[in-house]
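Good morning C.,

I know you're traveling, so I'll keep this short. The sequence:
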Amino acid sequence: MKNGQTKLVAMADVFEHRQKASYASLSQNFPNQCDVPEDKRFIGFEAYKNAMDCLRPGDVVILATPPAFRWLHFTYAIEKGLNVFMEKPVTVDAPTSVRMFDL
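The C-alpha cells, ready to paste straight into the viewer:
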C-alpha cells in the first residue's frame, strides 16, 4: 500500500459534535484508512481511556487534545505500551513541562 498499514480504529472527544465533524471529514478524505464503527467512537472526559483500550501495545495513538490534558493522556498511553504522536505545543508551562520530561 502506498500509505502503509495505517488505519484509524477508534476516536475520543469530549464534544460529540466535534467528533462527528472530524469523523465525517476523515472518512470522506481517507475512506480506506478510516474504520471507526459507532461503538469505537467515545465521548466524555474518560473517552481517551476507552479509545486507547481498543489498541494493542505498539500501536500509535495521536494526542490532539489541549496541552493541559496531554500529560494525563500520555501517562495512560505509556501504561498501555502505545507509541504516541502529539501535536505541538506539547506543554505550555513549566510545571507541565517538568511532568512530561519525567514521564
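Safe travels,
E.
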